[in-house]
Please model this.
Amino acid sequence: MIIKEDLCTGCLECLPYCPTQAIVQDAKTERATIVEDECVECGVCYRARVCGPDAIYPQDLEWPRTLRMEFSDPSAPYMSPVFEHRIISRFQADLREMDRRQLLDREGEALTISGRGTIEMKMNDMMGRFKRGRAGLAAEVGRPGIGARFRDVQTVTRALASLGVKFEPQNPLTDLMTDIQTGTLREDILNEKFLSCIIEFDVPLEDLAKVLARMREVAQQIDTVFAVDLISVVNEDGSIPTVPIAESLGLEPSIAGKTNVGLGRPLASLD
Amino acid sequence: MTHSNHRQGTRENLKNDWVMLSLPYRGPPAITEKVERYNQICRRHHPINPDRPRGWYIWVFDDRENMEAALKELAEAELGLSVVVSGLFDEVAECCRTAGTRAHTVNHSLGFWGRTEKLPPPEILEITTMCGHALVASSLVWHLADRVRRNDVSAAAACQEMRKMCICDIFNHVRADELMGQLVEAIEEGRCAPPQPSPGAGLPCNLTTDLSGEGATP
Model:
């Protein structure tokens, strides 16, 4: 995003709307300006319609800056060439033909929200993606609201890969890896900043403690935060096998979160 | 999407925060018919985001009874769609039993790891995490709360403004309104400073945007 200096009146109303506080007052002109390297192209400042003279302008993006939008604006279609194979419908293809302003001006865009993760456990009753005896894990790098760069992501993926973790192939992050075995990302994207990027994988329950411990270590080596998700099939008696393992490490699983309530049919095998 | 998984709060203030979604939300006619029935059922039980277009699939309830009634009716309808409810785990499990089903798979948050000193205070985080995509800026929440403190805008209007940023519309503005008091108090007592701008020339600002829908005041 950019702010057209000649249109900006210097009212500064747009400043607080930016999730990464990338809109600041220029010391010389006293008008609002966007720190380009900190902007994640989420489109919030534009969608907020807070600028009377319409000085906030969504410029078209080029690779690798397209990644900022793709990992920050949940309604954005895949635009980067690296995600070409993910354009699976005519609808998505049509979105891709729009310029940035048209994309942000869409009405009813909620229907296109797909996020940048996968359906994880939301259809586990019907798809059985997470089996008994395994734990699903995710590190949502940059959440909540801090943002991150792909170099932070790479620090985490390399640490996890060293334990033999297999990254979820359906997650778009996997497309950005040059070596999935080592968790190495493309060199040309490492400085790109975004709101969140989800590292998804699952592990056998017997490896869960080891992997969580490694995640805790690597969290100290990055310049941002990540939110941690822990997924488990619920036992017949209502107990949750991942909880005691997490608690044994001094972790406190949340009191609130997501429950797949088992209404999907037909039920998938979990063995 | 794990965007409803890290809503922060206490047991007490999470009791009015329930998000229900169903997948798939697109597909062949037989599926879209089921989704429409799912939506009709959810709409009947008073979600706080009722004015969504056809084909919508995420509903927010500020009352357990309404969520529970919706879940029970969904179970009775035997649509065969996967349904996920975000909220207090033990209460969702109880609602499942009432509805004649059981929790199948759960997704816990283990919190936020790393440079947590960068996070805003809990009073702000409890509000911002209701938009899991982080489109409700901590700086916006602070500035709007400060305006509420100065009687410049009502808490309800401030929360509606926050809600507008959340394009999935899973931001629970009713709960945000209820949380506003503790945030205003924290600002009043100097326990909650405004978030700092990114590197660059930044100055604190005193914002006055008209929230009546008339647009920005220059």
